[in-house]
Specification:
Blueprint (H helix, E strand, L loop, with lengths): L2 E6 L1 H18 L3 E8 L3 H13 L3 E10 L12 E4 L9 E9 L3 H12 L4 E9 L12 E5 L5 E2 L15 E5 L1
Parallel strand pairs: 2-3, 2-5, 5-6, 6-7
Antiparallel strand pairs: 1-9, 3-4, 8-9
Helix pairs in contact: 1-2
The structure holds guanosine-5'-monophosphate and magnesium ion.
The site of magnesium ion has 5 residues, from strand 5.
């Protein structure tokens, strides 16, 4: 196993997610739909919706898989739907969840799809954001942590589909 340097501990993530759920509960009506972008956001989404339960939110949930990265560390630029949501978003308040906002292409594509389908509002919540990397006009309404410009793994985020199960967020040390 290569060495992994911890960037955000399990406790730091837990505390921040509770704060984010309070922020979401303040911003949105009591009932809304949560859409997680797979695969990276699955652990964040699971923890966030349980924190939203504690804030008395009434939610429905769905997932969408968009891909742009493949096995490469740099975005290929092209974002395609690999698995679509099965619920209708027309007229709904939607909280769109992703693991990390980097170039912004993934979230831009997802927001455009949901708006095209008639979502009433789309509120974007990301766990991480890499400042200064945006390639398109998009911003997160709610962000967990601003990360340094390093390739992070864990807590859903992968390298070649490994390391998603780490309960913390870290950086691979060569
Ligand atoms: P964007 O479309 O904003 O450039 O990239 C967003 C997606 O790229 C994220 O959902 C994530 O899957 C992947 N990504 C971007 N930066 C990182 C990173 O540092 N580590 C990992 N594991 N994935 C990343
Ligand atoms: Mg992703």
């Amino acid at each position: 196993m290569p060495e992994i340097k911890t960037l955000y501990t399990q406790e730091q993530i837990h505390t921040r997610i509770q704060e984010m759920s309070q922020e979401i509960a303040r911003k949105l009506p009591q009932e809304f739909m949560v859409i997680g972008l797979l695969r990276g956001s699955f652990i964040f989404a699971a923890d966030l919706v349980r924190a939203l339960y504690a804030e008395h939110c009434k939610i429905q949930m769905d997932f969408m898989t968009l891909s742009s990265y493949g096995d490469a560390l740099e975005s290929s630029g092209q974002v395609v739907i690999q698995r679509d949501i099965s619920e209708s978003v027309a007229g709904r308040d939607v909280v769109l969840i992703d693991d990390i906002l980097e170039s912004g292409r993934t979230l831009r594509t997802a927001i455009d799809i949901l708006k095209d389908r008639g979502a009433k509002t789309v509120t974007v919540a990301v766990l991480l954001e890499k400042p200064g990397k945006l390639q398109t006009k998009v911003s997160a309404d709610i962000c967990g942590f601003k990360t340094p410009d390093v390739f992070v793994i864990g807590y859903g985020l992968d390298y070649k589909n490994y390391y998603r199960e780490l309960p913390f967020i870290g950086v691979l040390c060569e």
